[in-house]
Amino acid sequence: MIWIEVLSRHRELATRVRVTASEARIGRGYDNDVIIDDPYVAPNHLRIFRDDAGQLIAEDIGSVNGIFLDSSDKRSTRVVVDGEHPIRIGQTLLRVRSADHAVAPERIAPPEARLVPGVLVAALGIAVLGLYALTVWLAQTAEVRASDYLTPLLWIIVVVILWAGLWALLSRVFSGRSHFMRNLLIALGGTLVLAAYNEIARVLAFSFTAPSATTYQYAAAWTIVAVICFLHLRQIGHTRLWLKGVIVATVLATAIAAQTLQRSEAFSIVGRQGTVHVLLPPSFRAVPVREEAVFFRAVGDLKDKIDADRKGAKPAEAGGR
Fold first, then answer.
1. Which end is more exposed in the chain, N or C (fewer Cβ atoms within 10 Å of the end residue's Cβ)?
2. What pTM did the predictor assign?
3. What is d(CA 119, CA 213) in angstroms, rounded to the nearest whole number?
């Protein structure tokens, strides 16, 4: 008995076929024991049989594209299959095993905890909405209106659900399972971290008169979004995580570099220093405000320096030539 397993692009089992004959033929034609729907596979591509030593052999029977062992680029006509390393024909991965192939021992089933994801989602959702409500309250300068709180909170709910739903759809398409609750947890956790960092950066900038905390806020925001995307990609599949990490890191570096260039060009044109756009209660101040006399003394020193530079400047040549 021979088992032929067709693997997905993530090397997960897609189809398993049992062949009771001593030989199995594989190809795109309907006269095969295993039919492969791949345009790069020949109508009669290869056969699986046992040699005199009892080993399973995959042999090319006249295809154009040949057969390859696992991810090797070396074309072969005969391959000894061991049940672990798949063979590749066209763009399809096949794993061949015998009936006596040893399988891993049974795993111990974890206790069911269906309430845990729901509780975590509820807790993170309350934390996110509470943090954004606090942000609105700190920035409130006019009469309090319910719409000032409800509108941004509703937008956050809609965006988070759509974001998690999109990744769940991609996970369903590429891995066969949506993992909606996990993707929702990732989205809520990332939103909470992003909102917390924004508030902490603004408080630090206001409390210590340090605008650099908000000047480079965009870089931190892009980094948090990149980590969120990587975690979503990890839910889609645990294979080739290094490649997914490299892609996410490349996009992250490109986004930060592009926005840094844009901000530097805008600064060279406008020439304005970074300022804190949201005022917070005076109790948030951690360093004392400069006294009025100190401020005007600094302005006077700057005026004296500008006057001295103006007097020392050489007059331009007549006619500008």
1. C
2. 0.59
3. 34
